[in-house]
């Protein structure tokens, strides 16, 4: 569909983006991979100039063997799983609700979407102080109003609290995408089902939900990729204590706090592999969409 | 094809939807409200929804104490700069992929997407090393480059999906009319792509503004944007609720407004065109 | 001037050869129509001439100059696209002026030429509108306007009427023919509609699978189709093609007879048959007659209103002077 001339021009125009991303991907990745096989403790004087000691897979073994590894996997799974469950279920319900005829639909939509635009450090701090603080938080007032003892959310129920905060941030994303998907459902299909005698629940189960299947998959995959690397929310609330140290946060601490670069890099490689497993599924779906 | 919906049902859904909407919005509302209270009123029990003394003092204090304007300026430069740079690099790339597709176009697009999946924490140390080496640590230009790189796949993808909606025959017509590559892009493609480019810019400003891994880890005093400014409130002294609220309000207000304009584009951009 | 010569021009997409080496000369001032079924390569051929596709081999000469490697903008050709390809963000005036602007003409000259083109095309009242505010026919005219202001060596039309409804199509057909008579510029016109080809062309090029089946004036093609494909493609309603024993009587593998060259009689004739569906157009009447010994129903065209009832027995007599004979390879027997 094009001439030789425009093809070579096209290649030239693609070059900056491709080269930059290639560099962005390969250079740090190669370094991380290299560090992960070395003993690299800058605090004890190790540096690239002096040469790093090759230790083979020792860091990989130690990272998995450390007492913090499995708890961090558990925390990651609970947080990612919890947020996915909440956002998808509530997202579907909210999307259906927002698709109904009502007064002030535009405004409700704006209210629901707003949390997505709040920067992670703000939402974490607002929730930590304004909502969940055991003395002055809104929850503590409500608890006291009903005569209950206020809860120190972020220490006594730390994982559910983080899940709540992150879900609040991501629910708008899920809702918005599912709402877009619902609106693309052919209303004649629903009318046909109604004529066929299907009651509301059956229409939801047999028509709406299958139609949303693809959008739900996309929501799950994209959120998983972002949720696996949530950072600021934990950084400013619990700092990784009270069982909220996720894999990402553990790696961060290994690299930044304990300055064990080799060990942190090995953890980084695990995280990259994990993210790529999810990414493959996402890319297959997106790729199929390109062929249309 | 609107069907007559019974008024009673409409009242019910309206009430429910508004309740849910207000509930979700409540933390933001409460933050904005508290920012106008005095510190004592901010922690009043029961919480004050009305009847408090309206004050702007917190905003003044926040500005004075932590030099809000400097952080704001950093945020503007970093978010704007990285978006602009990204657009400059992505427009030609997306143009060629949309209008001169080859067998590899799809693979390149998917590969670009895959770089977006790279967990940042996995490459934190190498990037810091490179930044130290190049003297980019705690500089705005360093953050501009990093944020441009992490958002480049999204920019390319969004532009690509918009460009693909421009019929190729129009560009061929321009070629027949004597337009060279430069004129084709300048007079035909760009004006037609402006709405798409604008949405892409909008979404990317939002993403860059809210980015909170690299901005927290690669800045100290000089280049810190609003994300870092707010994070400094995580270990406060004394009464600080009203001030935290004022600072938070100032950090999110600009983007909240931009965000409301970009709902539709958000879906397309964040799903890489898979949901429109 | 606009004499275009294709010399062994060839086009392949990868391993698929869509146009095998092909020679063709288009004389200056000629109205040439490329016609053929969809997928025959007619649009590709046009795009090769335009320079929107690279040739895989051979040479394209415009007025004797080798233009094979010349970019589209420098070939001095103007093209009207099937989708009109108007610039949606520009007013009609700016659309028409665009090629002039690209050529670097000054504003006054641009305005003068746009005015002249708008006059010719009845667009004067719409100059400040956007393409989105125009009807299909008006958009078509803008696209033509954009082509004529450049005073090109030749016009290329890629199925320009296929997006218009039937009534408009007839009107635009006349307008384009009229334009050609006035400008006397070479026009190359691609269509799958043989009626457009017959009514507009000085010279028709019938294409099939990238091959030229026949080149000639509309009446040459009508009177002496070179093979079965052209015989079946040119003329409406289609020529009746009859094989078997009846063809043998004429020493041919297949004989062809156009519906208008058959006479009908209720009493006597060569072929006995039964009247099937009749189509009454007012000016003509078409009968589909099922004849003994002929597989397909024979289409007969009779001038004016003629009434024959369904199932009625009739006799058909082909005009022996208008009989086309084809051999077993499908080629015309002289």
UniProtKB/TrEMBL annotation, chain A:
Q: Where is the ABC transmembrane type-1 domain?
A: 73-282
Transmembrane domains' residue ranges: 12-37, 75-98, 110-127, 162-183, 204-232, 267-286
The membrane topology term of the UniProt record is:
Multi-pass membrane protein
PROSITE patterns in the record, alphabetically?
Answer: ABC_TM1
Give its localization: Cell membrane
* Pfam families in UniProt: BPD_transp_1
Q: Please give the coiled-coil regions recorded for this protein.
A: none
Cite the InterPro entries for this sequence: ABC_transporter_permease, MetI-like, MetI-like_sf
What does the sequence similarity comment in the record state about its family? Belongs to the binding-protein-dependent transport system permease family.
Protein name in UniProt: Sugar ABC transporter permease
Q: Which organism is it from?
A: Roseicyclus persicicus
UniProtKB/TrEMBL annotation, chain B:
Family classification: Belongs to the binding-protein-dependent transport system permease family.
Q: Which organism is it from?
A: Roseicyclus persicicus
The record's subcellular location field reads: Cell membrane
Question: Cellular component per GO?
Answer: plasma membrane
Keywords of the record? Cell membrane, Membrane, Transmembrane, Transmembrane helix, Transport
Q: Name one GO biological process term.
A: transmembrane transport
Q: Where are the transmembrane segments?
A: 12-33, 71-96, 108-131, 143-163, 184-207, 240-261
Q: What is the membrane topology here? A: Multi-pass membrane protein
Lineage, top ranks: Bacteria, Pseudomonadati, Pseudomonadota, Alphaproteobacteria, Rhodobacterales
The protein in question is named Carbohydrate ABC transporter permease
The UniProt entry, under InterPro entries, shows: BP-dep_ABC_trans_perm, MetI-like, MetI-like_sf
Q: Where is the ABC transmembrane type-1 domain?
A: 72-262
Q: Say where the protein is mainly found.
A: membrane
From TrEMBL, chain C:
Identify one Gene Ontology CC term for this UniProt entry: maltose transport complex
- List the signal peptide residues: none
List the top taxonomic levels of the source.
Bacteria, Pseudomonadati, Pseudomonadota, Alphaproteobacteria, Rhodobacterales
Supply the name of the protein: ABC transporter ATP-binding protein
Family the entry assigns: Belongs to the ABC transporter superfamily.
Please tell me the species this chain comes from: Roseicyclus persicicus
What's one GO MF term for it? ABC-type maltose transporter activity
Q: Which UniProt keywords apply?
A: ATP-binding, Nucleotide-binding, Transport
Say yes or no: keyword Amino-acid biosynthesis present: no
What residues does the ABC transporter domain cover?
4-234
Q: Which Pfam family, an example, fits this chain? A: TOBE_2
């Amino acid at each position: 569909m094009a001439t030789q001339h425009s093809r070579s021009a096209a290649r030239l125009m693609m070059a900056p983006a491709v080269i930059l991303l290639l560099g962005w991907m390969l250079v740090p990745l190669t370094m991380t991979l290299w560090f992960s096989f070395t003993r690299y403790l800058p605090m004890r004087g190790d540096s690239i100039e002096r040469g790093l000691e090759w230790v083979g897979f020792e860091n990989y073994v130690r990272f998995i063997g450390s007492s913090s590894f499995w708890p961090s996997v558990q925390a990651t799974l609970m947080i990612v799983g919890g947020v996915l469950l909440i956002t998808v279920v509530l997202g579907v319900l909210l999307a259906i609700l927002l698709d109904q005829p009502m007064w002030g639909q535009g405004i409700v939509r704006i209210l629901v979407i707003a949390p997505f635009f709040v920067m992670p450090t703000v939402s974490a701090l607002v929730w930590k102080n304004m909502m969940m603080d055991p003395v002055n938080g809104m929850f503590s007032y409500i608890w006291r109003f009903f005569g209950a003892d206020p809860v120190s959310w972020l220490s006594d129920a730390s994982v559910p609290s983080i899940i709540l905060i992150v879900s609040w941030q991501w629910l708008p994303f899920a809702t918005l995408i599912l709402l877009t998907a619902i609106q693309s459902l052919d209303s004649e299909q629903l009318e046909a089902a109604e004529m066929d005698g299907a009651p509301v629940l059956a229409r939801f189960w047999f028509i709406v939900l299958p139609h949303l299947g693809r959008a739900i998959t996309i929501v799950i995959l994209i959120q998983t990729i972002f949720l696996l690397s949530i950072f600021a929310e934990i950084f400013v609330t619990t700092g990784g204590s009270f069982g909220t140290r996720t894999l990402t946060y553990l790696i961060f601490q290994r690299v930044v706090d304990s300055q064990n670069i080799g060990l942190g890099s090995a953890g980084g490689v695990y995280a990259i592999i994990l993210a790529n497993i999810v990414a493959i599924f996402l890319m297959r779906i997106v790729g199929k969409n390109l062929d249309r | 094809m609107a069907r007559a919906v019974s008024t009673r049902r409409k009242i019910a859904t309206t009430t429910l939807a508004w309740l849910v909407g207000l509930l979700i919005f409540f933390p933001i509302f409460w933050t904005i409200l508290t920012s106008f209270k005095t510190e004592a009123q901010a922690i009043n029990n029961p919480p004050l929804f009305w009847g408090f003394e309206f004050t702007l003092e917190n905003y003044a204090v926040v500005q004075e104490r932590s030099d809000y304007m400097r952080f704001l300026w950093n945020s503007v430069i970093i978010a704007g700069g990285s978006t602009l740079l990204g657009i400059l690099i992505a427009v030609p790339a997306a143009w060629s992929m949309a209008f001169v597709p080859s067998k590899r176009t799809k693979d390149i697009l998917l590969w670009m997407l895959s770089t977006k999946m790279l967990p940042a924490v996995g490459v934190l140390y190498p990037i810091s090393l490179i930044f130290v080496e190049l003297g980019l640590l705690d500089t705005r230009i360093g953050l501009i480059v990093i944020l441009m790189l992490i958002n480049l796949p999204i920019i390319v993808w969004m532009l690509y999906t918009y460009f693909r909606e421009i019929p190729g025959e129009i560009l061929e017509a321009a070629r027949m009319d004597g337009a060279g590559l430069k004129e084709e892009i300048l007079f035909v493609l760009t004006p037609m792509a402006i709405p798409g480019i604008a949405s892409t810019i909008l979404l990317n400003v939002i993403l860059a503004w809210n980015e909170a891994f690299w901005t927290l880890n690669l800045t100290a005093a000089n280049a810190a944007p609003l994300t870092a400014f707010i994070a400094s409130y995580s270990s406060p002294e004394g009464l600080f609720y009203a001030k935290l609220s004022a600072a938070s309000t100032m950090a999110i207000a600009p983007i909240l407004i931009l965000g409301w304009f970009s709902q539709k584009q958000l879906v397309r951009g964040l799903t890489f065109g898979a949901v429109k | 001037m606009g004499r275009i010569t294709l010399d062994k021009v060839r086009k392949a997409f990868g391993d698929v050869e869509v146009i095998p080496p092909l020679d063709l000369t288009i004389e200056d001032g000629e109205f040439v129509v490329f016609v053929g079924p969809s997928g025959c390569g007619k649009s590709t051929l046009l795009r090769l001439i335009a320079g929107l596709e690279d040739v895989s081999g051979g040479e394209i000469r415009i007025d004797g100059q080798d233009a094979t490697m010349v970019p589209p903008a420098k070939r001095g050709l103007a093209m009207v696209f099937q989708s009109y390809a108007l610039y949606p963000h520009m007013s009609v005036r700016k659309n028409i002026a665009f090629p002039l602007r690209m050529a670097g003409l000054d504003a006054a000259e641009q305005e003068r030429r746009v005015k002249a083109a708008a006059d010719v095309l009845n667009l004067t009242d719409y100059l400040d509108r956007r393409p989105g505010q125009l009807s299909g026919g008006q958009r078509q005219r803008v696209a033509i306007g954009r082509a004529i202001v450049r005073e090109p060596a030749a016009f290329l039309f890629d199925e320009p009427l296929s997006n218009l409804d039937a009534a408009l199509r007839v009107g635009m057909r006349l307008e384009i023919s009229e334009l050609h008579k006035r400008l006397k510029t070479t026009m190359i016109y691609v269509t799958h509609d043989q009626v457009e080809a017959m009514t507009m062309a000085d010279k028709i090029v019938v294409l099939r699978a990238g091959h030229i089946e026949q080149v000639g004036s509309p009446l040459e093609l009508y009177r002496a189709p070179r093979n079965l494909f052209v015989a079946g493609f040119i003329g409406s309603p289609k020529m009746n093609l009859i094989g078997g024993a009846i063809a043998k009587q004429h020493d041919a593998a297949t004989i062809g007879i156009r519906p208008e060259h058959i006479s009908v009689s209720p009493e006597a004739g060569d072929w006995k048959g039964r009247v099937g569906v009749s189509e009454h157009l007012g000016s003509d009447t078409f009968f589909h007659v099922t004849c003994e010994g002929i597989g397909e129903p024979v289409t007969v065209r009779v001038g004016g209103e003629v009434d024959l009832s369904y199932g009625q027995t009739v006799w058909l007599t082909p005009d022996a002077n208008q009989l086309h004979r084809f051999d077993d390879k499908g080629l015309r027997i002289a």
